[in-house]
Write a structure and sequence with these properties.
With 317 residues, this protein is an alpha/beta fold. It contains 9 helices and 13 strands. It is found in: Cytoplasm.
Length: 317
C-alpha cells in the first residue's frame, strides 16, 4: 500500500487536518495499531508533526507513524493529572508574547521561557500593544526584559505599525514558529498582520482590567506568504514546570552558574559564604539582584524536578 506524508495543521480530539507535500489538505486519524503502540498521550500527533500513513477508501489518511520530532513544546495537563499535553512539534522559534499593559508579568514569562528551552526550540520575547504605554514606559519595559532574560531577543509590536524586521528575521521558509502567551495579549492580531488577512478573530480590550478577550480556542498552523509556518495557540495563564527537564533551567540561569565557578567553595550556596562570586557580582552590579532572587525562588521546584528525574532513572535501570 502506497504511503503518503504530510504536516498536521490542526488537531482535534480524534481528527487531524493534514497538509500533504503537494499542498492539498486532507483529514486523518491514527490507526488502531498506532493506538496500541503509544506509551503516553504526548506520543499522539500534534500540530507541526510530520506524519506518515496510507489513504483509506474514503480519502482519509490513516496515520501509522509520527516522524522523529526536532522539538516538542508541551505542558502539564490541567488539574491533578500528570499527563503531558503536546502544544506543538518541530518548532524552531517560539514567540513568547506579553502585552505592555497590565498583563506584563516576569514570573510568568520566566516559566514560559523555561518550557521553550526544554522543548528544544529558541525563545523570543514579543512585547505587544506597545501603543498603550508612553515611550518612557516602553523603554523601561524593554530594558527590564533584556536584563532579566539576558541573551534572549526582545521584539516590539502593535496593531498600528508594520511588523519590524527583528521579528521577521525569525520567519524563514520551511521553518515553523509558534506563538504562546496569556489570553488576549495580541497573538491573533499579530498573526493576522503577518498573514495580511484576518484568519483569527480578535476582540477589543476589556475595560475592567485592560486585558484582551480570549479568542483562540485551538491550535492551527498557517503558512505565511514567504513559506514560513506559524502556529497560533490558545492562551495559557498558568504554566506548571512538572514536565520539564532540569537542563532547561541551565539556559535560564547560565549567568549564575558561570559566576558560581568563581566562588571560593564548590558547594557555595551564595548566602553568607566568604569569597562568593555571585554575591560579588550582585554588589558590583554585574548581576541583577532580581535575577538571583528568581533563581532562589525556583530552587525548590528545581530540586523537585531533579528528584523526579532520579526516580525515573532508577525505574529504568
Amino acid at each position: 500500500m502506497e504511503k503518503t506524508k504530510g504536516i498536521v495543521v490542526f488537531q482535534g480530539q480524534d481528527i487531524s487536518k493534514i497538509k500533504q507535500v503537494d499542498g492539498t489538505m486532507i483529514t486523518g486519524r491514527v490507526s488502531g495499531k498506532f493506538r496500541k503502540q503509544v506509551m503516553q498521550p504526548s506520543d499522539y500527533p500534534v500540530v507541526g508533526d510530520e506524519v506518515v500513513g496510507h489513504m483509506s477508501d474514503v480519502d482519509q489518511m490513516i496515520i501509522q507513524e509520527v516522524t522523529t520530532r526536532k522539538s516538542f513544546l508541551q505542558r502539564k495537563v490541567a488539574g491533578n493529572r500528570q499527563d503531558e499535553q503536546g502544544i506543538a512539534a518541530n518548532v524552531s522559534t517560539v514567540f513568547i508574547t506579553t502585552s505592555a499593559n497590565e498583563d506584563f508579568n516576569l514570573s510568568r514569562l520566566e516559566r514560559f521561557t523555561t518550557i521553550v528551552w526544554d522543548s528544544g526550540a529558541t525563545p523570543v520575547l514579543v512585547l505587544t500593544k506597545t501603543d498603550l504605554v508612553s515611550a518612557d514606559k516602553l523603554s523601561s519595559l524593554v530594558d527590564e526584559l533584556e536584563t532579566y532574560f539576558y541573551g534572549i531577543s526582545v521584539c516590539q509590536t502593535n496593531c498600528y505599525t508594520e511588523i519590524n524586521e527583528d521579528l521577521k528575521s525569525f520567519l524563514n521558509k520551511g521553518e515553523i514558529v509558534a506563538f504562546i502567551g496569556s489570553s488576549g495579549v495580541g497573538k491573533s492580531t499579530l498573526l493576522n498582520q503577518l498573514l495580511q488577512e484576518e484568519v483569527q478573530t480578535t476582540k477589543e480590550i476589556r475595560e475592567d482590567d485592560a486585558r484582551g478577550k480570549h479568542t483562540t480556542t485551538s491550535r492551527h498552523l498557517f503558512t505565511l506568504p514567504n513559506g514560513a509556518m506559524v502556529i497560533d495557540t490558545p492562551g495559557m495563564r498558568e504554566v506548571g514546570l512538572e514536565t520539564v527537564s532540569t537542563s532547561a533551567f541551565d539556559h535560564q540561569y547560565q549567568v549564575i552558574y558561570d559566576l558560581a565557578e568563581t566562588c571560593r567553595f564548590s558547594d557555595c550556596q551564595h548566602q553568607t559564604e566568604p569569597g562568593c562570586g555571585v554575591k560579588k557580582a550582585i554588589e558590583s552590579g554585574e548581576l541583577d539582584e532580581m535575577i538571583f532572587k528568581s533563581y532562589l525562588k525556583m530552587e525548590r521546584e528545581l530540586a523537585f524536578l531533579k528528584a523526579k528525574e532520579d526516580k525515573k532513572q532508577r525505574k529504568i535501570k
